[in-house]
Amino acid sequence: MADPQTQPPHHPDPIRQLEAVVARLRDPSGGCPWDLEQTHASLVPYVLEEAHEVADAIQHGDDRHLKEELGDLLLQVVLHARIAQEEQRFDLNAIAESISDKLIRRHPHVFAGAEAADSAAVKATWDAIKAAERAEQTADGAPSRSPLSDQLAGKVRGQPAMAGAMTISKKAAKAGFEWDDLAGVWDKVHEELDELKEAVASGDRAHAQEELGDVLFTLVNVARWCGIDPEAGLAGTNRRFLDRFSRVEAALGGDLQGRGIQELERLWQQAKAQIRAEANSPAS
Question: Quick check: pTM over 0.85?
Answer without folding.
Answer: no
